[in-house]
Write a structure and sequence with these properties.
By secondary structure, the protein is α/β, with parallel strands linked by helices. It is about 40% helix and about 10% strand. Pfam families: DDE_Tnp_IS66, LZ_Tnp_IS66, zf-IS66.
Length: about 475
């Protein structure tokens, strides 16, 4: 700037400073616009788009709102009479056709179509016809409707003839009978299971089940159905839940997570407030998994501390700080959460491969690729392989992270901050081969994605 007056030089310097400040403001506004755009896209998807997961589940009793969990409590009436007799009307349905691949694993019944004996003559010469072969003409999918019947237990009584002859007194022995699911009730194990399955798995409320029973000729009130659910749950499922919890607390690894639900007309809370359904499940032990759900009105870490009282193994969760209230456990982080944060930070346009977020995303992918190779190994061998293969990738990742300087408030900054805050727990998987790289085991249970997990699902504490 030779030849310029001091006033002009100062003015140019002020303009440069102002330009830099405006450039920073524009960059921050771009970050804010990107975040608001992401929020809007996610909101529109949750409201109008197809999704395999529900953003929230509504519990409660309202004229315009179906109730999922607490309908039984609302409809229950211990004075509701048990029907003394039932009349069952059988019915049939026409066979339905569907795609052949849907019937690939179903049992097959062959229907042989033959000519009648008086038609086994040739129309040309009148000679006898013999069997040449057979061919498949078509396949149909047949549905056999559920049948309702009454099980009448008749006990056989026996008398000792010798005692009767010698003493003149009869010794009578009665055959044992199986204990009823509910005393003084017509409910059988299959009936209660059917009602619970249709309500909690298929989402059919009791008032619709009441009509469905009536269509089959059985008059059962929704109050009676509600009583069956509650009494069977208290007598049979709660003890099972407690037994499973004792077994779960003895495991080496426990996965935990919580999801938002909304409860209508919950005492002391507004209908718009959020509650939580907590899930706890065993790790990859090779045995049948244990999965337990527990409803709580808040997200306080005290609920996890109380539930996991007595557990002192590895606790695998997301980065929620509330799990820090659980004492005497070793926290294990979730690389799936971190990978998703990097994925969300990758630019939607421009040089994606050269972005910092894509580099972090690729580090996560490398660790997951190694885990897929080690899936069939024993925990001891998996630990050794992790020290040999995963540890160098992990060390390279943390070294790379120190060189990253993200823009404050950006998606990338969130991923970096999460990673730094969770560094210790994210490294824990190197300590034991039973620990998994992510908390996906707990995440998948809430939406019934695993058939194995469905077998051990027990819900407790959902009285609203």
């Amino acid at each position: 700037m030779t030849g310029l007056t001091p006033e002009v030089t100062e003015y140019i310097s002020k303009l440069e400073t102002q330009l830099q400040e405006q450039f920073k403001t524009v960059e921050l506004q771009k970050v804010r616009i990107d975040r608001l755009t992401d929020i809007l896209v996610k909101f529109q998807k949750s409201m109008y788009g197809q999704s395999s997961e529900k953003s929230k589940y509504v519990l409660g009793e309202d004229n315009n709102q179906l109730s999922l969990f607490n309908e039984a409590e609302v409809e229950s009436n211990r004075h509701a009479p048990e029907p003394n007799k039932v009349a069952v009307a059988g019915h049939t349905r026409k066979a339905k056709r569907t795609k052949e691949e849907l019937a690939a694993n179903l049992p097959v019944v062959e229907i042989l179509c033959e000519l009648e004996e008086d038609k086994l003559l040739c129309e040309e010469c009148g000679g006898d016809l013999r069997v040449l072969g057979k061919e498949t003409v078509r396949e149909e999918l047949e549905i056999i409707p559920a049948q309702v019947r009454v099980l009448r237990y008749i006990r056989q009584n026996y008398v000792c003839e010798s005692c009767e002859k010698e003493t003149g007194e009869a010794t009578i022995v009665k055959a044992p009978t199986p204990a009823p699911v509910i005393k003084r009730s017509l409910a059988s194990a299959s009936t209660v299971a059917h009602v619970m399955y249709k309500k909690y798995v298929n989402g059919m409320p009791l008032y619709r089940q009441e009509k469905d029973w009536a269509n089959q000729g059985v008059i059962l009130s929704r109050a009676t159905l509600a009583n069956w659910i509650i009494r069977a749950a208290i007598d049979w499922l709660v003890p099972l839940w407690e037994t499973m919890k004792c077994h779960l607390l003895k495991q080496a690894v426990i996965h935990a997570d919580e999801t938002v639900i909304q409860v209508l007309k919950e005492e002391g809370k507004k209908p718009s407030s959020e509650s939580r359904m907590w899930v706890y499940c065993s790790g990859n032990t090779g045995d049948s998994p244990v999965v337990l759900f527990e409803y709580q009105p808040t997200r306080s870490g005290e609920h996890a501390r109380r539930f996991l009282d007595g557990f002192n193994g590895f606790l695998q969760t997301d980065g929620y700080s509330g799990y820090g209230k659980v004492p005497e456990v070793t926290r294990c982080g979730c690389w799936s959460h971190l990978r998703r944060k990097y994925q969300e930070a990758i630019p939607k346009s421009g040089d994606v491969e050269g972005s910092v977020a894509a580099v972090g995303f690729e580090y996560c992918n490398q660790l997951f690729a190694i885990e897929r190779d080690l899936a069939q190994l024993s925990p001891e061998k998996r630990k050794l392989q992790r020290q040999e293969r995963s540890k160098p990738v992990l060390e390279a990742y943390w070294s790379w992270l120190e060189t990253v300087n993200p823009l404050k408030g950006s998606r990338l900054a969130e991923a970096i901050t999460y990673s730094v805050n969770q560094k210790t727990s994210l490294n824990t998987f190197l300590e034991d081969g039973c620990i998994e790289l992510s908390n996906n085991r707990a995440l998948s249970t809430g939406i019934y994605n695993s058939q194995d997990l469905q077998k051990t699902l027990v819900i407790s504490g959902v009285s609203a």
